[in-house]
Structure formats: structure tokens, C-alpha cells
Design goal:
It comes from Streptomyces rugosispiralis. Keywords: Membrane, Transmembrane, Transmembrane helix. By secondary structure, the protein is mainly alpha-helical. The chain has one domain (6-152). The chain has six helices and no strands. Helix 2 (31-50) runs antiparallel to helix 3, helix 2 runs antiparallel to helix 6 (125-152) and helix 5 (95-119) packs antiparallel against helix 6 (125-152). The protein is elongated. The chain starts with 5 loop residues before the first helix and ends with a helix.
């Protein structure tokens, strides 16, 4: 160990740093999380269309509370698979903020699409808006999170 050249040490440190960044890029939420979120989104769209406003609001709040309880274990992004659990230093501290911000943005998109569809005279505008958002969440949730993490440097 005493006879390591500076170039060899630098090469080893660079390799370790690259491996750490690769693991950090893989940090995220399991695919099932995104599909469960998508299913809940569609369910809320249907309930918002068939129920009076106050029970639909209660269902929305219930979904939010349930999601908060369930996702609190997952939002740190450190348990993407059963085989890998990384430290907070590698995963980053801002992942919960990025996920919550992403969900708030998706809520805004859903509302705007529903309003636009309703103004255009579409029947069941809330359901169609929810299906659109759910499709985006189910198929693209991990990729969106990856991009947002990069933008937020999380």
C-alpha cells in the first residue's frame, strides 16, 4: 500500500466516485408505487365524476392521507428494490421534496386538462384528465423522477 503511485490512487478514487454516482442514479421508487398511484388517480377521477362534491373531496383527502402514510417509508428513495438500500448521503436529502413537488405538478396538470376538456364540452372530463395523468404516472413516473432529481440536484 505504501508504493501506490499518485496516478493509480487518482484512478481508483475516480472509479469509486463513478460507481457511487451510478448507484445514486438508480435511487428511486419501485415501479409498483407508480402503478398504484396511477390506479388511485383514475379511481379519484371516477369518484369525482359519480359522487357529490363532498364525498369526492373526502375520498381525495383519504387518498392523500393513505398515500402519505404508505409512501413515507418509500419517499427517501433508498429502498427501490429489496436487494439495495443505500445511505442517505448517496440517495440525497431532497428526494421527498422532489416527489411531492412532482405530485403537486401532476395535480395541477390534471385540473387544467379537466377544465379544458369541460370547456370544450367533453363528457366525463375529470375521468379523461385522470386517465391521461395516470398514464403518464404509470409509464413515466420513474423517468420523470430521474429528470426532476437531476434538475433539483437531489
Amino acid at each position: 500500500m505504501d508504493k501506490i503511485a499518485p496516478e493509480q490512487a487518482r484512478t481508483a478514487l475516480d472509479a469509486a466516485d463513478r460507481a457511487r454516482r451510478q448507484v445514486a442514479e438508480e435511487v428511486g421508487l419501485p415501479r409498483g408505487y407508480w402503478w398504484a398511484m396511477a390506479a388511485g388517480w383514475v379511481l379519484l377521477g371516477v369518484l369525482g365524476n359519480v359522487l357529490p362534491p363532498w364525498p369526492a373531496g373526502v375520498a381525495t383527502v383519504g387518498f392523500g392521507v393513505g398515500h402519505g402514510v404508505f409512501a413515507s417509508r418509500l419517499l427517501d428513495g433508498r429502498r427501490r428494490t429489496d436487494r439495495l438500500r443505500v445511505s442517505t448521503a448517496v440517495a440525497g436529502h431532497r428526494i421527498p421534496l422532489v416527489v411531492v413537488g412532482m405530485l403537486l405538478g401532476l395535480i395541477g396538470v390534471t385540473v387544467l386538462v379537466a377544465l379544458a376538456l369541460d370547456a370544450d364540452g367533453a363528457g366525463h372530463a375529470g375521468i379523461w384528465a385522470a386517465v391521461l395523468t395516470a398514464t403518464v404516472v404509470g409509464f413515466g413516473g420513474p423517468e420523470m423522477l430521474r429528470v426532476l432529481r437531476r434538475w433539483a440536484r437531489a
